[in-house]
Amino acid sequence: MPSCRCSCPYPNFPGRIIAWLCSFNVWYQIFATVYLGFLSEFPTVVNVAVLVVWNGIWLLTITSLLSAAFTDPVAIDPRYRMPEEFVEVPVEERTKKFFKRLSRYAVSKPDIQFQMTDHSSREFFYPRYCIPCKIFKPPRAHHCRQCQRCIPRMDHHCPVIATCVHSHNHKFFLNFLFWASFLCVYAATLITRTLFEIVDLDVEFLIAMEQFDLVMWLITFSGWTNAVICAIALIGFQIYLWSMLVSNQTTLESNDNKVKPDYSLGSRVKNIETVMGYNKLLWFVPYQNTPTDGFTYPVAASSETNPDDMCECEYETEEDSCADDSDNEYAHDV
């Protein structure tokens, strides 16, 4: 996978994943070793059961994280490659005549679903294009300045996984948020009772009787604090992403005030299935079953582009053609 070019302290992609794995390992040891080994008041059988469930959730979290990070976006279909006659046109020569040629080209390719745009009067449409990638943009694709490529059905660029959330790893990313938040809630819920029961007791007396290890309590308390904070952040971000998914929108589309196609299939379940797959039992399993090729998406009839409207267009510069999505790192990412 190409390395991410984010402006971050550790831009090396594998190094960042190793850092995250080390962090999850620390949280694992705090819960499994420190809490269950030294502070838990549950019987041994219960502790074993708690640990088995913890291991299952932890493995699902790690698997989802790695799947989201290492699943590459599909390569842009060669059918979207711009003919050289368009690529070589200088910026100053991209006049109405040029955009009319683009419109005619789109009309001549009825088997290809283009990402269309209109000029200021909203009377004419032509296919959007990306000069750096030398392609016509497929529906819902955007050029990511960090990854330096066009990403099919791009949702946002995520610094956590050092790559974009796109058509083929969106499910894994949602799986990661779900299981990571579940892991935090599970740990915080179990630890809360023990931590605050100890606080209610005479700590100095327990220390004197050698029945209390202050260091272990402080380590566990720090882990509990981290779990609570992360749970709130993960759940909040997850609610936002799911609210986009039920209407079949991406993060970029929801923040775009321009007129755009309506990709909703009319049902929340059907919209969710476009990313999570048709088998509901596998929605939260990090298994690739997203039913899309990344380039073809049904559009509501009311928002379809009329081929008759694809004709002469206003002047647009190269910068304008990509300006709305070239810098798309999502500020609210986890």
From TrEMBL:
It is found in: Membrane. Its EC number is 2.3.1.225. It is a multi-pass membrane protein. Residues 315-334 are annotated as: Disordered. InterPro entries: Palmitoyltrfase_DHHC, PFA4/ZDH16/20/ERF2-like. Pfam families: DHHC. The keyword Hydrolase does not apply. It catalyses: L-cysteinyl-[protein] + hexadecanoyl-CoA = S-hexadecanoyl-L-cysteinyl-[protein] + CoA. The chain crosses the membrane at residues 17-38, 44-71, 176-196, 216-242. The keyword Ligase does not apply. Residues 126-254 form the Palmitoyltransferase DHHC domain. Keywords: Acyltransferase, Membrane, Transferase, Transmembrane, Transmembrane helix. Its main location: membrane. It comes from the Eukaryota. GO terms for biological process: protein targeting to membrane. GO terms for molecular function: protein-cysteine S-palmitoyltransferase activity. GO terms for cellular component: endoplasmic reticulum; Golgi apparatus; membrane. Residues 315-328 have a biased composition (Acidic residues). Belongs to the DHHC palmitoyltransferase family. The DHHC domain is required for palmitoyltransferase activity. This is Palmitoyltransferase.
